[in-house]
Amino acid sequence: MSSTLVIGCMWGDEAKAKIVDYLGGNAHFVVRFQGGNNAGHTIVTGGKKYVFHSIPSGILYPKTTCLIGSGVVIDPIAFLEEVKALEASGLNLEKRILIDKRAGLVLPLHKSLDEDNELRLKGSKIGTTKRGIGPAYSDLTARVGLRIMDLAYPEYLKQRLEELYAYHKIQISATLLKQQLLALEQAYEVLAPYITDVESLLNLGCNKDTNILFEGAQGALLDLNYGSYPYVTSSRVMTDAVGTGTGFSTRKIDNVVGVYKAYCTRVGEGPFPTELFDATGDRIRTTGHEFGSTTGRPRRIGWFDAVAASYSARINDLDSMALTCLDVLSGIEELEICTAYEYMGEKTDLFLSHPMELEQVKPVYQTFTGWDEDISSCLSKNKLPKAAQHYLDAIAELVKVPISIVSVGKDRSQTFCIES
Ligand code: IMP
Questions:
Q1: Is residue 133 lining ligand 1, measured as CB closer than 6 Å?
Q2: Ligand 1 mean position to 133 CA, how many Å?
Q3: Roughly what angle, to the nearest 10 degrees, separates helices 154-167 and 174-191?
Q4: Which atom of ligand 1 lies at the shortest distance from residue 38's CA?
Q5: Which listed site, 13, 129, 278, 360, has its alpha carbon 20 to 30 Å from 210?
Q6: Across the strands, what pairs with 264?
Q7: pTM
Q8: Distance, CA of 301 to CA of 264 (rounded, Å)
Q9: What tens digit of pLDDT does each residue of 133-154 get?
Q10: 38-74 as b/e: b if 16+ CB within 10 A
């Protein structure tokens, strides 16, 4: 058996799906283990663009089965809409997606709580995707949440849903409750064949030839505990989350590939030490089409932050890095990489964890010469301009992890490996 994890190492949107797609040709299983439909994973192949929210990116390979682990939260209605839309685009999904029975449910209540929280918070508004992800996870932690397998027991479901509204001290009319239960019942009729036990499938159902690819969503700097709290998502977004989110122990993962962009982006609120507010930032946003694939929000842009990147590499115990969007930097005369932070007059190479500290750090930059050439058809490191090769070497050295994959364009074909 071989197992690889592809994990986002910054604030999400590192083009993980492209790397999953690149590595996924031989995967028997592609497995999501955290997050929900707050994710927006884009793959472009043969001139066609696909965006996945809850469905793992391996779905484009007809022989791959896509698994959704217990650590994921599922909005059943949105999930079925996504299935329908992908089928309409010509994909055959039959028997190719399975959801763990333990996965949590995102309910209409969670979406309205998410909207309300965003309105209520003033100074420390998070800027969530408003998909109900935070409230769904917090209800699961408070042990009042509902799970996929509850859909099989209508009486139990009704009792739990009533208790959930009571827990939140929200009155719901009998008619609305009935409508919500009916919608869940109808969703279950379609969803039932998708429901399985991902833990036993992965631990007992694989043999020595099975290839498993784990697909992270969001990025490690949005991890609930190790990210830039409170401006984070509500799931665990680290290598270790594979074990808790699938039942397949993290100890069994052979290869961890951390995905980084050649620059940084962030959507939503929160500290971002290398953020650019100038024409270079605007240029990168436009060239890189840096607008959220779930919400359409313009992404904030910054220089590559090697302090944050090496922190992320440490907490995820990376074997190698995949560096994406290198082509977007073509034509910028000088590039900066943040090599340290200055905080209260002192230099540090630690990623500071309090938002007030991280807001105040001043990045210390090293300047690199840019390149003018269009590199979108360079398919090996030595075909890149010398300045781009130098930029890659500097990142690998600063993050202290070798670069194994480079992406120079949106299409599956615009990707190459670097042998170590
Ligand atoms: P939530 O996950 O919707 O609760 O949002 C919490 C924070 O995570 C916000 O800053 C979102 O913009 C960010 N976030 C959630 N999902 C993604 C993603 O897939 N890519 C980038 N940022 C995300």
A1: yes
A2: 9
A3: 130
A4: 16
A5: 13
A6: 302
A7: 0.97
A8: 6
A9: 999 999 999 999 999 999 999 9
A10: bbbbbbbeeeeebbbbbbbbbbbbeebbbbbbbbbbb
